[in-house]
Amino acid sequence: MKESNKGRAGGYNCVVCIKQVPDTKKVTGQAMKADGTINRAALPAIFNPEDKNALEAALSVKERYGGKVVAIAMGLPAATAILREALACGADEAVLVTDRKAAGSDTLATSYILSQAVKKFNPDLVFCGRQAIDGDTAQTGPQIGEKLDCAVVTYLEKLDLDGDTAIAVRDIGTGVETCRAQLPALFTVTEKFGELRPFEMRRVMKYKNAEPTILDCAAIGCEDDRCGFAGSPTSVNKIESVVLAGGEFKEVAATDEGIGGLVAELIKDHTIG
Amino acid sequence: MKNTQGEVWVFAEQEEGKLSDVPFELLGKARELAGKLGVKVGAVLMGSGVEALAKPLFEAGADVVHLIDDPALKVYRNKAYRHAMVELVKEVNPQIAIFGATHMGRDLAPSVASALRCGLTADCTDLQIGDYEDKKTKETFTNVLHQIRPAFGGNIIATIVNARNWPQMATVREGVMKPLPREEGRKGELVKHSARLDGVEIPVEVVDIVRRVSTVNLKGSRIIVCGGAGVGSKENFKLLHDLAGVLGGAVGGSRAAVDLGYCEHERQIGQTGVTVRPALMISCGVSGAVQHLAGMQDSAKIIAINTDKDAPIFKVAHYGIVGDLNVVIPKLIKAIKA
After folding, report:
1. ipTM of the complex
2. A3-231: which CATH topology?
3. Domain assignment of residue B198, yes or no
4. Cis ω on the peptide bond leading into residue A184 (within 30° of 0)?
5. Chain A residues in contact with B120 (beta carbon < 8 A)
6. Residue of chain B whose alpha carbon sits nearest to that of A145
7. Sign of CA dihedral A74, A76, A77, A80
8. For B20-30, how does the pLDDT look when each residue is reduced to its tens digit (9 = 90+)?
9. Is the pTM of this model over 0.90?
10. Sheet (strand B126-133) strand order
């Protein structure tokens, strides 16, 4: 599709939403508190993996068609670390939405706050990672899209732009769909889009102490009762750590006799054969 | 408005006029929930020319099928489906709405919840009706939906409630709930609704869909041989295919095996892959990360083969063989063939 690479004069204004998350792959004994809940502080905080793919999508739009990329993170001031990473990779502007009023936000409240922040930048394209590894919900992206009332394209794998139209390839589980979406549009991006480009050394140095633009809920026009606990319809009733039942297996010797006996047992109870 | 007499809804996902497996699974659970609440089970069927699909939904447990048949709904599009669904919820006022945690369900459900400003819990592995006490306000809520899901990479199980803003919405993992046996000739009430899409601009046009021809059917297999990082190489994975071959089973892999390129992504078993519960699971060189166990621990029989006797996989196994799979699998094949 040659014509799909046309882009448009002036390029595209992109916003990418990124999140700092605890590295859930590193959950070990030390990261569990006595009551069975997780001690987030004991886990390294990382740039959510699929948000890196989302940033790559935004940077590739800028590279191919021109324009700019604004990275927005919502969270504690510590999230500045991933915003600096985004700047080092090529983002033009970094914004941190941080406010005590946002504490305890579920996906509905989070998507509301982020949508209010996104609106401030009036983007043509908004990118989010498909999901964050601490919750794995994949809800915040589509919910931002609903609030922006723009085209929503989830599971993005490939993107071309032609004027005010995005030609997107997305995974629909049972296959791959190609669609044309009118801008503005929001995309949730999976790892299939491609890895985030490496840092530019020059930019790493330039932005290593950069401070993001700080916005609080009031600055982006949020109604208080839609933020944080007040704006979150879901509540956690109970948390249990996963305890493996444990240990009651029948040991089978790795010998011809042992394995022959096991197979005979499985045939006898009709599991196999 | 909380409608305690409202129906329990299942989104009857279909593509190209064919229902997917997940609505049948969800209807099984919805019957249980609706039975406890003393209300009806409703299935929401959307598409174009799909009225004939109401019959299998009745036979799988729906009391009411809410049909929205409109050419604009022929292919799934977020805005069109979202709008039609939101308007239907406002009209009928169900108390619970559950969706499959498929690509479509995970696109539609959050959009609908956002528009209705109600809560949504993703990827549930169980749903129950129970009470809830808000510890802050001391309010007690009876008969609310307890939405149970793994979180934090599968390391914790959380129970989420949405006591105030109804409908209570959840997506449910595929393969987790059991469909009811089909009750032939079971009848229900078919209610036709308008999509109410007049004047609604839909900003997306689907140009083309290439369906994936899946050669792997893990969910439908009675026997699964599953490999992990401990298999060691793509070549060694052939041994697992040999074993599955003599057993008439399928081959699956842990996330580690998929990431290492030992097997294809569609074979992945676990929290981010497929949930399975075969009659027999033979787990080879799988250490047993909680994310993986979440997707297979309900298998009827589990045989674990691992060189590390302390591997967590043995905690869910019924039979354990501490040994090298390159030695054990050929012995298994030999014994089965004998």
Report:
1. 0.90
2. Rossmann fold (3.40.50)
3. no
4. yes
5. 107-108, 139, 234
6. B111
7. negative
8. 999 999 999 99
9. no
10. A235-241, B156-161, B140-151, B126-133
